[in-house]
Design goal:
The structure is a single chain. The protein has 9 helices and 10 strands. The chain is an alpha/beta fold. The protein has one domain: Aldolase class I (TIM Barrel). Helix 3 crosses helix 4 and helix 8 packs parallel to helix 9. It is globular. It starts with about 35 loop residues before the first strand and ends in a 19-residue tail after the last strand. The structure holds iron/sulfur cluster. The site of iron/sulfur cluster (SF4) has 14 residues, from loops.
């Protein structure tokens, strides 16, 4: 199928809705054919090797294949914020972010707009956009869609949220999350099998898997760490995050109504060290604050 036609019978992600988005239908991601963006701006709250001092050129797309109960970006995942653009404007946004000094172009949840994002990136590259491209995703991605980005994306930044499929079903509504995330990450590592950093420790290519520790679920997080380490060793970096913040009005499950404790995070990090993870990023200090969430008001779009 031609890339453009992918909107007509949409199977771009593992939800496989099979709907015609060109007719205005919306699938589980909440998006029709029109590209919607919540914010396009320099972003300083990613890992230092992504944000650096100048910031990452983050483009936050509206819509999401997952419906995580603890989502901190509900306005984005529900498609209730931001502006509509065409691929031409998206190209301009990439070029503008380069002009502003962004270290990279950071595509935040782009999978459901894959054909349009690829078209805009290819156009921007033809016009001199030579920044590393980061693919920032919840990990619930189809291998076929990730394959379309081969040679276009430099850094993959997927989450690996759950190893237990019952947790995946309870908190994100998709039981097959673990198998889907494993397959997607396998394809990402196939494309980018080695992390490369420049002289300022900024990442130029590779895979960084983010693992957000959830309160009360240290064991599941440990299973993820051992799977990633056993499978990929030092080919990938793992970002072990303590920043979970309860957004109470959305959270029904009581164990999610608190931050991760210091003791839980210490157990998790100790486990990472015990199994020999060397390429890891850890978080220090009190990072579990909502102030790290930028405003999604169409800024820069
Ligand atoms: S991208 Fe959206 S419409 Fe397409 S299969 Fe996934 S959830 Fe469904």
């Amino acid at each position: 199928m031609k890339r453009k036609n992918m909107y007509e019978n949409c199977n771009m992600c593992p939800r496989k809705c099979g709907i015609d988005r060109t007719a205005g239908k919306r699938g589980a991601c909440g998006a029709d054919e029109k590209i919607k963006i919540a914010r396009a701006a320099l972003h300083f709250w990613e890992k230092p090797c992504i944000s650096g001092e100048n910031g990452s050129g983050a483009v936050f797309f509206l819509g999401c294949q997952l419906h995580c109960e603890f989502c901190q970006n509900k306005d984005i995942s529900d498609c209730t914020a931001g502006k509509t653009v065409d691929a031409g404007r998206l190209t301009e946004i990439f070029l503008e972010l380069k002009e502003q000094g962004a270290y990279n172009i950071n595509l935040v949840t782009p999978s459901h707009f894959a054909p349009s994002v690829i078209e805009a990136l290819e156009d921007a590259k033809r016009q001199g956009m030579d920044l590393p491209v980061v693919y920032n995703t919840g990990g619930y991605d189809s291998v076929d869609t990730i394959k379309l980005f081969e040679g276009i994306v430099d850094v993959y930044l997927p989450d690996f949220k759950y190893m237990d499929e019952n947790l995946a079903l309870r908190f994100s509504g998709v039981k097959n999350y673990p198998d889907v995330a494993k397959a997607a990450i396998r394809e990402m590592v196939r494309q980018q099998p080695k992390a490369v950093f420049d002289g300022n420790d900024m990442i130029k290519s590779g895979v960084i898997v983010r693992q957000l520790l959830l309160p009360g679920h240290v064991k599941d997080a440990m299973h993820i760490l051992s799977y990633l380490h056993d499978t990929y060793g030092e080919k990938i970096y793992i970002s072990m995050m303590s920043q979970y913040t309860p957004v109470r009005k959305f959270v029904e499950h009581t164990e999610l109504n608190r931050k991760v404790t210091k003791r839980e995070y210490e157990r998790y990090i100790q486990y990472a060290m015990d199994i020999g993870i060397e390429n890891g990023f850890i978080q220090e200090g009190d990072v579990a604050e909502e102030s790290f969430i930028p405003e999604f008001n169409g800024y820069g779009v």
